[in-house]
Amino acid sequence: MKKAIFPGSFDPITLGHYDIIKRSVKLFDEVIVAIGINADKKYMFSLEQRQKFIEDSFKDEPKIKVVTYKGLTVDFCAKNNVDFILRGLRNPADFEFEKAIAHTNRDLAPIETVFLLTAASTSYISSSIVRDVIRNNGDYTVLVPDSVRVK
Ligand code: ADP
Fold this sequence. Notes:
The structure is a single chain. By secondary structure, the chain is α/β, with parallel strands linked by helices. The protein has one domain: 3-Layer(aba) Sandwich (Rossmann fold), CATH 3.40.50.620. Helix content is 36%, strand content 21%. The chain is built from 5 helices and 5 strands, in the order βαβαβαβαβα. A 5-stranded parallel beta sheet has the order 3-2-1-4-5, with helices on both faces. It is globular. It starts with a strand and ends in a 16-residue tail after the last helix. Bound molecules: adenosine-5'-diphosphate. Adenosine-5'-diphosphate (ADP) binds at residues 8-10, 14, 16-17, 20, 87-88, 90, 94, 118, 122-123, 125-127. The site of adenosine-5'-diphosphate has 17 residues, from helix 1 and strand 4.
C-alpha cells in the first residue's frame, strides 16, 4: 500500500493545497494531510479550525486522512509506515527550500519526497497572502476551498 504524507501548516488550506492533494490521490492509496504543530509559531486559525477546513474539503474522499503531528516528519513516517513525503512546488524559491529539506530527510530516513508542480491557475496563492486578504476584509473566498469561511 502506497502511503504519502502531505505536511504543512495549512493556515488556512488554499486552492493551491487543494489542487495538489486532489491530484495526489491518483498516485497513492492513502494521502495523509498532516498539520505540523509548532509551539513557537503564531497561527491565524486554531489547529481545530485548520483540521476541520481540510476535513470538510475532502469529506467525500475516503483515501484522504487528516491528522496533526508534533516532531519530525520522518519520525511520523516511520511510526505510520509512510514511504513518501508529498510537497508542492510553485517557483524557484520553493524548489531551493524544498531541496534542502528533502536532502536532509533522506539523510535521516529512507524516504522519498515526491514533488508536484502547482497548477498554473493556483501558482500564486499562498496561505500568507490569504491571511493578509482576510485581515484587510478582502474577498478571500476566491483563493480557498468553500469549507474555509471566516465568521
Ligand atoms: P509550510 O509551513 O510547510 O510551508 P504550507 O501549508 O505553507 O506549509 O505548505 C505546504 C505545502 O504546500 C508546501 O509543499 C508548499 O510548497 C505547498 N503549497 C503551498 N501553496 C501552494 C500552491 N499555491 N500550489 C502548490 N503547492 C503549494
